[in-house]
Amino acid sequence: MSTAKLTLNGKEYELPVIVGSENEVGIDVQQLRAKSGAITYDPGYGNTGACQSAITFIDGDQGILRYRGYPIEQLATQASFVEVCFLLIYGHLPNHNELTNFESELTRHTLLHEDMKKFFEGYPRGAHPMAQLASMIISLSTYYPESESELDLNIIRLIAKIKTLAAFAYKKSIGQPYIYPRNDMSYVADFMHMLFAVPSENYQVNEVVERALNLLLILHADHEQNCSTSTVRMVGSSQADLFASIGAGVCALWGPLHGGANQEVIEMLQMIQDDGANYKKYVDKAKDKNSDFKLFGFGHRVYKNFDPRATILKKSTDEVLHALGMSDPLLEIAKNLEEVALKDPYFVERKLYPNVDFYSGIIYRAIGIPTNMFTVMFALGRLPGWIAHWREMRSDKASRINRPRQVYTGATVRDYQSVFERK
Ligand code: CMC
Q1: How far apart, in whole angstroms, are the C-alpha atoms of residue 388 and residue 233?
Q2: 411 C-alpha vs ligand 1 centroid, how far in Å?
Q3: Of 352, 353, 356, which is best to mutate to test ligand 1, by the most ligand atoms within 8 angstroms of its C-beta?
Q4: Range(s) within the chain of domains with CATH label 1.10.580.10
Q5: Domain 3-59 bears CATH identifier 1.20.120
Q6: Which of 31, 246, 258, 260 has the maximum number of C-beta atoms within 10 A of its C-beta?
Q7: Which protein residues touch ligand 1 with a CB less than 6 Å away?
Q8: Of 285 and 1, which is predicted with more confidence?
Q9: Which tops the pLDDT comparison, 277 or 27?
């Protein structure tokens, strides 16, 4: 095994080096503090490996994304979302029997306990579905407390029920009656039915829409140690249960710099359209250091060439709109923004490219998903990734409670004074 050498205050320290299956190199600093008294400093963890993981591989310079070794381009065009869930969580593609059993289990656990409807009733009208989703997922642990023998069953329950929770949250937000899950429909079709059906009408699931949603969910299914997945691992590292850990992940995803960006993108495109579609003005604004404005859907911590998910989505956006016989002025603005930004030295130098959130919202809009549900859709897609990481962490002998260090910069020791003595 090779080692790395670090010189600190004239003293040399030898540090072990680990190499991953794709030749990624990590310097193991676990003993650094014990030996030298120093810690590593890395705000935002941009250069810190917090675990070893066999789930997802990303090469940000080459624009490569693989789940369990399978290229995203193959999974996106050939697999079903349920297959991808199985793959991520259990490590291999299911054979025919495994897939049939998994699908049937997912179908049989979609119902929510009837009492849970009372929780939805308590939320104010217009409550953001992400807030409802996070708290409902955590509430599941009150019905299904953790037990070692039911771990796999709770995983099934969560994947099966998240779409019912998401659909109920939406129905609550628009004041329509809840539509119950159907056992004769596929995972994606059942979700759409719960979302869009109304009791008095016969809702038919459009195949183009079903395929588009399947693709979107697959593209979001995992992305190694992103903010929400790291949150799931962070919370889970204290041995908090599955529902608590995933609920925390949903909260982390909601932020506009992470999954919340898909809602921000559409609101931004709408704002540009309302302002006369002058997209160049907004590219200039994004470059202006005196302005807080940024181009949502642009930039990524890891991808410095292109985001392969965005490439797939851009193509699919055209296909879906064409198949549905629709056009969307926001798509034109998005394409123009992309074209201008990709030629602009500010974006080129900083390697800022459209990310997965840039085009996803236009497909969601085309298939009738309301803007405040966009991040919920991301959560549905990311769920198998969160579960896979939570499960991997649980069985990893090297896993410990996550507890970063800090470099303290506050006051040095001083004596307490009573309030009458204070100046
Ligand atoms: N528009 C304008 N400037 C940007 C943007 C943007 N979207 N993104 C980054 N920059 C600039 C940033 O100001 C900085 O400039 P300078 O070096 O002059 O200070 C430079 O590019 C590097 O950016 P950073 O903020 O240090 O990069 P980061 O790795 O910390 O942040 C990011 C990554 C995704 C949070 C950021 O690019 C961003 O805020 N993008 C917009 C939000 C967004 O689309 N998020 C979705 C991410 S993909 C889906 C997901 O996994 O959640």
Answers
A1: 10
A2: 33
A3: 352
A4: 70-395
A5: no
A6: 246
A7: 44, 223, 226, 257-259, 261, 286, 294-301, 350, 352, 355-357
A8: 285
A9: 27
> What does pTM read for this prediction?
0.96
Q: pLDDT, tens digit, for every residue of 313-357?
A: 999 999 999 999 999 999 999 999 999 988 999 999 999 999 999
Here the tokens at position 111 are 């119902």
How far is residue 211's CA from residue 297's CA, in Å, rounded to a whole number? Answer: 23
Q: State in Å: Cα 317 to ligand 1 middle.
A: 23
As given in the structure block, the two tokens for residue 11 are 């003293």
Residues designated as active site? 300, 357
Cα 423 off chain centre by: 50
Instruction: Name which residue sits closest to atom 16 of ligand 1, judged by CA.
Output: 350
Confidence of residue 78 (pLDDT cuts 50, 70, 90): very high
Q: What is the spatial distance between Cα 223 and Cα 268, in angstroms, rounded to a whole number?
A: 25
Q: What was the pLDDT predicted at 125?
A: 84
Side chain identity at residue 190, one-letter code? D
**Looking at the domain that runs over 70-395, which CATH code has it been given?**
1.10.580.10
Q: Is the pLDDT of residue 384 over 80?
A: yes
Residue ranges of the chain assigned to CATH 2.20.28: 3-59
Contact status, residue 324 vs residue 230, Cβ threshold 8 Å? no
Instruction: List the one residue out of 179, 199, 176 whose CA is nearest residue 189.
Output: 179
The residue behind tokens 């064409």 is: 322
CA of 410 relative to ligand 1 center, distance in Å: 29
> By CB neighbour count within 10 A (0-12 exposed, 13-18 middle, 19+ buried), where does 374 fall?
buried
CA 223 to ligand 1: nearest atom: 51
What's the 129 CA to ligand 1 centre distance in angstroms?
25
Alpha helices by DSSP H, listed for 4-128, are 32-36, 72-78, 81-90, 96-108, 116-122
